């Protein structure tokens, strides 16, 4: 079943005291393009996430956004720079001696000096973060695929309906072709009679009609159209990316339809060809959004 290239999905996952929100949106694009926007500290996960998206989506532009919110206060560690504290203490004692004053410095005063005591947050393991982000991303991609599949069903029904319309126009052209030749024969007879004012040579008339039949015969084009219609419907039922093949088939249908229009010297068939080309243009627009 065909999939649309347009969709949206959202996934949330909590872990490591953080909440990860992943949003994925996709739009139609001739090729595959994946854009990932995540916090700078997770930049190393970009290639992994890109490959993950490619497992789900083969064509279209995909934008993936990752937002992170802290939900639990991270535990931190207190670190004391003993060497720096000793340097402070020695320097203060030397200064006191030089100034000939008392150097009664308390431990609390030294501890309050810059960089002696620092609070450091525990670093989060990137591999653990990757597992949590992956879960949120898969949820978002599943939602995206569901939307693309739902829209694909709508496109499928519309395209089947339009192919049915094309078959109706084709049937009318088939039915019209012999009538067109009979009408041409009568028009030709009347014109000859008006010009010559004498009995029409039936053999010559038949030769002219045969020439007209050969010139305006669109049987081959109509047969090929039948084949293209069947291939188009079969392709709609394939799994995977079929948008490019459908586009090719529509081009072939257009080519055959144009040939019919140029060969058939008949106003009614010309009107039917215009209707077919209008329908084909609508089909072409629709398949631009098929993966």
UniProtKB/TrEMBL annotation:
Signal peptide: none annotated. Its cofactor is a divalent metal cation. Coiled coil: none annotated. It holds the Pfam family YicC-like_C. InterPro entries: YicC-like_C, YicC-like_N, YicC/YloC-like. Residues 2-155 form the Endoribonuclease YicC-like N-terminal domain. GO terms for molecular function: hydrolase activity; RNA endonuclease activity. It comes from the Bacteria. Keywords: Endonuclease, Hydrolase, Nuclease. Residues 175-291 form the Endoribonuclease YicC-like C-terminal domain. Belongs to the YicC/YloC family. This is TIGR00255 family protein.
